[in-house]
Design goal:
By secondary structure, this protein is of the alpha+beta class. The chain is 33% helix and 21% strand. It binds aspartic acid.
Length: 335
């Protein structure tokens, strides 16, 4: 039987492919584009987010504005239980959000453990632009958002509340994200544990930017912060080299400064795909069997508009939009 996540992914991918009249191809590579502008996002469902970013990129807008606009699509979508509104809550039943943004000049901003704000990415951008800091957390981030005109909203939907109540029956925290293992374990409420959006873009002027936003791992401890709002872990941009972003079990990404590592490997001359692969291999070298059941995926883009990905497990997809059209790729993986 298909679990929920597999079902959503399978049905979405086929309808997205039909809608855009494009093929889903087997493994990621830069085979259909060498030029800018271009935008890519973790997970195939995010063709919708890319389309929003594309409105800006295709009219010669700035990559920074494009990624900020693009990731607001899943942030506001209650059906996406991994980002923003409708995100699965922590173990206390509270939706807590993490986000960061970075531009071509190494300007960056982040919020973490933020509650009741629909668009954490907009707050992250304001942290970048209006404060002397890079990161604001929890109550302070909320105060800053409210002072800047954001409104408090209840982000816990009935569906996510139900998933949490189902999970409470066992209260067994399990960041396993391999669909097959989730199916075997049949953990209540845990069928859709993660799916952060990380988006990276190269604009017509040749500048790179990125954004990453998530409700984090489902049923995490209260106060837990993952990789997604950490510059260098969940996202990194260097306009001389490229950009990278990640999804999956954030603790594993943080340990190796994942996105920064991908960018540094590209600096040494590796293709985006090889840089992602070597980064995943480093993770395995350090952690071995401890991460055998976990998922982590990276996507990367260089200054030429070449892109690629790599993941620990099968099942990681990413979405790309450029002048050549829209595509969803199945990432290569180690396992
Ligand atoms: N990376 C996110 C985190 O650890 C989870 C995800 O990708 O869904 O919070």
């Amino acid at each position: 039987m298909l679990n929920r996540r597999k079902f959503v992914q399978a049905s979405f991918l086929s309808s997205a492919a039909l809608f855009f009249n494009k093929t889903i191809i087997a493994a990621g590579s830069s085979d259909f584009i060498k030029n800018n502008p271009i935008v890519l996002s973790t997970w195939g469902d995010n063709v919708k987010a890319n389309a929003e970013a594309w409105k800006i990129l295709s009219s010669s807008g700035r990559a920074l504005d494009a990624v900020e606009a693009g990731v607001q699509i899943p942030e506001a979508d209650p059906a996406d239980q991994s980002v923003g509104y409708g995100g699965l809550p922590d173990r206390d039943g509270k939706v807590t959000l993490d986000a960061c943004i970075m531009d071509e000049n190494a300007n960056c901003g982040a919020v973490m453990f933020l509650e009741n704000i629909m668009h954490p990415i907009k707050v992250a951008r304001l942290v970048m632009e209006k404060t002397p800091h890079v990161q604001l957390a929890g109550e302070g981030a909320l105060q800053f958002a409210l002072a800047n005109g954001f409104k408090k909203e209840n982000l816990l939907t009935p569906e996510s509340e139900k998933a949490w109540k189902d999970w409470l029956k066992t209260s067994n925290y399990d960041p396993t994200t391999t669909p097959k293992l989730l199916e075997q374990k049949n953990v209540p409420g845990q069928q859709n544990n993660h799916d952060t959006i990380g988006m990276i873009a190269l604009d017509a002027a040749g500048n790179l930017s990125g954004a990453c936003t998530t409700s984090g791992l489902a049923f995490k401890m209260r106060g837990r912060v993952g990789d997604s709002p950490i510059i260098g872990a969940g996202l990194y941009v260097d306009n001389e080299v490229g950009a990278a972003t990640s999804t999956g079990v954030g603790e594993e990404v943080i340990r190796i400064c994942g996105s920064h590592t991908v960018v540094e490997l590209m600096r040494q001359g590796m293709s985006p795909e090889l840089a992602c692969k070597r980064t995943v291999e480093r993770m395995i070298k350090k952690r071995g069997s401890k991460i055998k059941e976990l998922q982590v995926g990276f996507i990367a883009l260089n200054t030429k508009g070449e892109f690629g990905s790599y993941a620990l497990q099968k099942g990681f997809t990413y979405a790309v939009q450029s002048k050549a059209g829209v595509k969803v790729y199945n990432s290569k993986s180690i396992y």
